[in-house]
Specification:
The protein has a domain of 273 residues: Dihydrodipicolinate Reductase, domain 2. 37% of the residues lie in helices and 16% in strands. The relative contact order is 0.17. Strands 13-12-11-7-10-9-8-14 form an eight-stranded mixed beta sheet. The protein is an alpha/beta fold. The protein has 17 helices and 14 strands.
Length: 458
Amino acid sequence: MTESLNRRDLLKQALVTGAGIAAANALTPMPAVAENITAATAPDAAPPRAAFAKSMKGVPFARHEVVRLAVVGTGLRGRGQISEFLAIEGVRIVAVADTVPEKAARAVKMCTDAGQPAPAVYTNGERDFERLVERDDIDYVYTATPWEWHVPVLLAALRAGKHCGAECPIGTTLKDLWELVDASEKAQRHCQQLENCNYGYNEMLVNRLVHDGVLGEVLYGSAAYLHDLREILFENRDEGLWRRGWHTRMNGNLYPTHGLGPVAGYMDLNRGDRMTYMVSMSTPERGLTLHREATVTDRNDPKWQERYVTGDLNSSLIMTAKGRNILLQHDVSNPRPYSRLNGVQGTKGVFEDYPARIYVDGQAGGERFTGIDEWKKTHEHPLWTRVGELARTKGGHGGMDFILAYRLIETMREGLVPDIDVYDSASWSAPMPLSQMSVARGSAPMRFPDFTRGNWSA
Ligand SMILES: NC(=O)c1ccc[n+]([C@@H]2O[C@H](COP(=O)([O-])OP(=O)(O)OC[C@H]3O[C@@H](n4cnc5c(N)ncnc54)[C@H](O)[C@@H]3O)[C@@H](O)[C@H]2O)c1
């Protein structure tokens, strides 16, 4: 596809692709493609802020003696995080919602086994969370539903005056991301991407190295989600029921935030710099088709009706206002060891992960990487020093799931400004639609919206 493609061609193509997708898709059809192409006409143009809305930057939580949580989506991840929250003082799970009563019941049992009163249960269909958010005993709504439900749950929570947070991505179209920003500003309630990877041991250590100047001026970062999910995507349960569907809908980076969140922290994005545009390209799709051929032996299985359109490896380059660059990749369809890349290059040195290694200019032993053990003595993050042992015992993703939960509760109990605000959340998810738009236009540069509306340099 050429860059000179005009908007009408793009819309036509979007409708054709959309119709093809809807016909071929055995899972839920989505309007994502058409919405993103519409936004492509002026993706960086901020809609005017409503007169009554105010920025959520730097706004602290009110102090909460006990944080009363509601959890929407009690599948694998929702229950995993409930287990982390239950290990933290000053938390009550007051309500849970799931479309599958048995999954909600398992969450309830976890709470009562931990000595808490049984949470109220909302299992009356896909929109029962709308009743849940109206309760007046909820401080924070956390959602771990499939991606297509994050935005409806978050908007309902904000409109009911509740703080809220979602798993990744927080929204899948630019239109939705703007809606979340506007709803958060209007409600004066926080809306967060609860990005566990920002709380990983290495990520927090590297963040301190960077801010201590050990690596010099940061020039370049690398971020990714490279995880062989083929088996999970084809299971007849859990994520296999919905996640593979996204591979029939869009060609781009489906999961940008695990890699990008930490690098955004190294670069202080939205706090002195911001992502301005990105270009993206995808390889052909092979992995899911080959996996289906190898494992789905029954040709009458509805999976054989699906056509996968997500290129196996998607690579994007992001430019920032200060001229720094980020490589962002996604591949969940090929055999490979797990990696989020998690790299940062500065004028005095470089850190790369998987495995963790560092080189600082003039380092003893010459121009070769060493491990990071020495740096742990001086730069381990205080949160890990304080509660790292408990985090490791809990174990979720090496402990970072606990640190994320602990820090959320700490910021709410102590009345602090949250680490992650709605502007971070929206901009980390934006590469999902932007990569799709860039790929569809022959890797044309796509401008990032400035979700802060000009308030990113402080
Ligand atoms: N941060 C991480 O490390 C991490 C790890 C795994 C998954 N995730 C994310 O967590 C989310 C959930 O993933 P999962 O692995 O738990 O999937 P899952 O399929 O196991 O759980 C999703 C749950 O949501 C329920 N659900 C679906 N629609 C609903 C609705 N309208 N209202 C209420 N409940 C609804 C389902 O019945 C299911 O129990 C996804 O966004 C995923 O990307 C994040």
